[in-house]
Amino acid sequence: RIAEIDKKLNSIIELNPDALAIADQMDKERKAGKVRGPLHGIPAVIKDNVDTADKMHTTAGSLALLDAPTPKQDAFIVKQLRDAGVVILGKTNLSEWANFRSSKSSSGWSGRGGQTHNPYILDRNPCGSSSGSGAAIAASLAAIAIGTETDGSIICPSATCGIVGIKPTLGLVSRSGVIPIAHSQDTAGPMCRTVADAAAMLTVLAGVDPN
User: 129 catalytic, yes or no?
Assistant: First the structure.
């Protein structure tokens, strides 16, 4: 579905080459009677300012980080998702540096990923900076997504793309392994198609992180 649809949306910045193998493993666990929870085997996409210690980059959409080493460990929230059995399909495009590259940054555009489009009206603003996550979920390219927000970057693309986004209370969700802007405001949060999905995802994301 990503190959068929996303060439028009530009919401996915990179695919996880191990996604199908991970999905197969989650299916085997479920068939064997091991169900890790409500997100076991659920496909997710992750905003590209959140570390994933796999074969994908973490660049915040910037060409400056494209040749940087891949992270040595998952962001705490990504580890929470993996432990819950989530299948990470890929990373999503965003407003470069989460809309912090300049005072005239373009919503949903990054140097690495180009311009993300609104899946309902392709020439309209998808809103940023978690625009790729919003567009991908609205287009059913995954079931759940991680977005991040300093000031409207989860809520705006969620509203514009017709999905459910939650900006959690500061401190409920760990920020380790997430490229920062403002210590006083930054947080990651769920972006999903239903309130029930967002609640289930937030339950997994929340937790005490020693880092």
Answer: yes
